[in-house]
Amino acid sequence: MANTKVNLCGITLDNPIIPASGTFGFGYEFAELYDINVLGTFSFKGTTLEPRFGNPTPRIAECASGMLNAVGLQNPGVDKVISEELPKLRRVFNKPVMANVSGFSIHEYVETVRRLDGEGDIGWFEVNISCPNVHGGGMSFGTSPEMAEQVTRAVRKVTDKPIIIKLSPNVTDIVSIAKACEAGGADGVSLINTLLGMRIDIKRRRPIIANKTGGFSGPAIKPVAVRMIYQVYEAVKIPIVGMGGARSAEDVIELMLAGATAVEIGAENLVNPYACRDIIEALPSVMEKYGINNLSEIIGGAH
Ligand SMILES: Cc1cc2nc3c(=O)[nH]c(=O)nc-3n(C[C@H](O)[C@H](O)[C@H](O)COP(=O)(O)O)c2cc1C
Question: What sections of 76-192 are H helices per DSSP?
Fold first, then answer.
């Protein structure tokens, strides 16, 4: 029997499949389509200290082999996530969930994590220092090793739960950022967030997205993700949550061979809302095809 279990920072997942933050809401929306308890876990929508309305529309543009988004961290704010979203999730999901948090200052990251820390069903914090779609925060923390280490150290002080720092691909040297997070006390890193991109409407002669630029994700970015996961795996000892363009069981195996312990699925959820369930169902036969009995044994297998 194929063993799909993996261990992510001390917590065993039934399989390595994790819907990526921003593409799976707070989970209960997808529970209307299938039993989301089949998932390894999922990462909920990026949560900030204050509620955020997000960016003006249009916020999405389709591209060949991917999509641009500039949602701008729309969320109801941490207090409403605790009082309204998590209780709805609890009714349909009985596994530890990954809490994705974002901020515009170190204080905001710390306070958001501190307030969420008391929620028993939160298994991991995924600290997003890489959002390209907000101004004055997000990605600026993820493009400097010093800032990345500072955020990591600050959130480390307010939680004993595993902290996974989500890295930006919009840097020349992702390895130095990953090492800084490890030095700051991170239990893991997740990569990659979206690549900064842009499209222009040739009839209007204006950017399609109201924010002008957006984050590019989907199948086209997979080779960038594989390269960065591979490089970071060689440089740090902490586990990697890999993502970027994955949409099949074969893609999951590819990212794991590069060095990922678990794999998040993002844009594909918007193409096929059953994508994660389908990948989980396909995994055992694909593992058999490639002679894999125990999925956790292939982590970093390409090195
Ligand atoms: C519509 C949309 C919203 C997103 N929102 C968030 C977010 O709130 N927080 C975050 O860390 N990443 C966010 N992301 C990035 C994804 O979690 C993921 O890192 C990225 O899309 C790459 O994976 P993919 O190619 O499988 O989509 C968002 C992506 C999309 C497409």
Answer: 78-80, 86-90, 106-116, 139-142, 145-156, 174-183
